[in-house]
Design goal:
Outer membrane lipoprotein wza fold like, 3 domains, 3-stranded antiparallel sheet, 10 strands, 23% strand
Length: 254
């Protein structure tokens, strides 16, 4: 009986610690050689949406022009919180417009940052010569949840951010992560959608969803063994209790 309990405990320990190599590696199916493999790059440009907050800076050698156009929006420093983003940016209204000093309203929803910048530049040129426009998206952030070491929301000031870079911002995945099942929730002004990607498959590099979009929520799902691993101490305690009970009955009946 005692040997049976020992064997059972060992089996439980081995099963609870067993994770396939495939689930523990990124791009598992890449050929095991030093050959360089190229994949087509698929990326769709991000477009501005209703509710986005954009930073608009109009620069000129004329200080009066700078003060006239920029008003309180004259600094791109210390933009580190939701509050400062709201104060230093222009929010796209439900009709898709932003309201700029002097220039009035400009429709930017549905346009890329570069398209919006060019459009605002055209409007500025109607008022002044030799003035330059800078446009940035301030509320560009992704949220990473689930089986990662530092879950949270992260501001990103880049046009391209891969799924691997997004997970790296969250401190990489932990030991319970299922790299084959990573869910992404993507929201837009028209619809919300969810889909899963497999980080063990090298083909993800050429997938259109390899690059995340502002507002994406990334959820790293747990391995199916996680619940079993977490309950292993309880199971072992239960088995030991049964062993103690049976052993007690054995000595009582002797």
């Amino acid at each position: 009986m005692k040997q049976f309990i020992v064997y059972l405990s060992v089996i439980l320990l081995l099963v609870s610690s067993c994770t396939s190599r495939k689930n523990s590696m990124y791009l598992y199916n890449r050929p095991d050689n030093n050959e360089t493999i190229s994949y087509p790059k698929k990326i769709t440009e991000n477009t501005l949406q209703v509710g986005d907050v954009v930073y608009v800076r109009i620069l000129s050698i004329n200080e009066e022009i700078n003060n006239l156009f920029n008003l309180d929006n004259n600094s791109y420093t210390n933009i580190t919180s939701e509050t400062s983003i709201t104060l230093k940016g222009f929010t796209i209204n439900p009709e898709g417009y932003i309201k700029l000093p002097v220039i009035d309203t400009i429709q930017v929803a549905g346009k890329t940052i570069f398209e919006a910048e060019a459009l605002i530049q055209e409007k500025v040129n109607e008022y002044f010569k030799e003035a330059s426009v800078i446009v940035k998206l301030l509320n560009a952030k992704v949220s990473v949840l689930g089986e990662v070491n530092r879950p949270g929301s992260f501001f990103v000031y880049r046009n391209e951010l891969s799924i691997f870079e997004a997970i790296a911002l969250a401190g990489d995945v932990n030991q319970y992560a299922d790299k084959k099942r990573v869910m992404i929730i993507r929201t837009s002004s028209k619809q919300n959608e969810t889909f899963r990607i497999d980080l063990t498959d090298e083909q993800i590099i050429s997938d259109k969803n390899f690059y995340v979009k502002p507002g994406d929520i990334i959820i790293v799902e747990p391995l199916k063994l996680k619940s079993f691993r977490l309950n292993t101490p309880t199971i072992s305690l239960f088995v030991n209790s049964i062993y103690t009970f049976v052993l007690t009955l054995y000595y009582i009946q002797r």
